[in-house]
Design brief:
The complex is a heterodimer. Chain A is α+β, with helices and mostly antiparallel strands. Chain A has two helices and seven strands. In chain A, 22% of the residues lie in helices and 48% in strands. In chain A, strands 1, 3, 4, 5, 6 and 7 form a six-stranded mixed sheet that branches. Chain B has a single domain, classed as Thrombin, subunit H (Beta Barrel). Helices cover 9% and strands 41% of the residues of chain B. Chain B contains one helix and nine strands. The chains are: A alpha+beta, B mainly beta. At the A-B interface, β2, β3, β4, β5 and β6 of A face β3, β4 and β9 of B. β2 of chain A pairs parallel with β4 of chain B, so a sheet runs across the interface.
Chain lengths: 143, 108
């Protein structure tokens, strides 16, 4: 079965984050994390806007979220920031993701905090990629 | 009948307990043995994730008899529970005040 470009983007991001070394990157993990699994990345698809500028293609603006999550005794945002910087550098080292998309860019982020035995923090960073596919087949990339 | 030493020891013998140390001084007891505190079921905490998995964690709670230490720990005090160091949050009293409940933050 063919795989959509969207799905290939998510797979590429997970692979890039796992290549950072250290924290594990998960793909669309819905199951709750245990504290013994932190720090971790979780890559989740978000939304896709489409436009039609040619007769045979669909222009996509696809967004996905990388949740950078960690825990610490104090200043937990510092621990998360290290994840964010390492992951962001890995993702945008090649903004075309190896030619898979026209461009990849960051679109914003949001912090979340929680109090527990250790402080917990997540930084959800939204990225956007642009790519073109066949109107009739989302797995066929157009240039 | 007022809550007192006899109640404390009975409580500690019949319920699972852990050693608690505070201020590097010997803890209160009527026979020189360490006073014991009880770790309740920890509070369940979740860092919720929008559209994705959050994190499940626990906030341990410690119940201490009102007279376990003199003075009793206050917010921010360092305390050792079962050999593990914690910082305590502001205590809350239970029912008749016989026990104080502290949340524990790890120090390492």
């Amino acid at each position: 079965m063919s795989v959509s470009i969207q799905s290939q983007v998510i797979a590429a991001i997970v692979a890039l984050l796992n290549a950072v070394g250290g924290p594990r990157a998960y793909r669309t993990r819905i199951t709750t994390f245990g504290t013994n699994e932190l720090p971790a990345y979780n890559v989740l698809p978000a939304e896709d806007d489409t436009e039609y500028e040619t007769t045979d293609g669909t222009e996509h603006r696809f967004r996905f979220t990388v949740r950078n999550t960690a825990q610490a005794v104090d200043e937990v945002d510092v621990a998360v920031d290290a994840l964010y910087v390492a992951g962001h550098k890995a993702i945008l080292a090649d903004p075309t993701l190896g030619g898979l998309v026209h461009i990849c860019r960051e679109r914003g982020s949001k912090w979340e905090f929680e109090d527990a035995e250790h402080d917990m923090c997540a930084l959800a960073v939204t990225y956007e990629v642009e790519f073109s596919t066949s109107r009739s087949d989302p797995s066929v990339k157009l240039f | 009948m007022a809550f007192g030493d006899r109640d404390l020891r009975a409580f500690c013998r019949t319920v699972g307990s852990v050693a608690v140390a505070f201020n590097s001084v010997s803890t209160y007891s009527d026979d020189g043995t360490p006073v014991m505190g009880l770790l309740d079921q920890p509070m369940q905490i979740k860092l919720a994730g929008e559209g994705g998995a959050g994190v499940a964690a626990e906030l341990p709670e410690l119940r201490l008899p009102y007279n376990a230490f003199s003075p009793m720990p206050t917010a921010g005090a360092a305390i050792t529970v079962g050999g593990v160091g914690y910082t305590v949050t502001a205590p809350t009293a239970e029912d008749d005040g016989a026990f104080l409940c502290y949340c524990l933050k790890a120090t390492s």
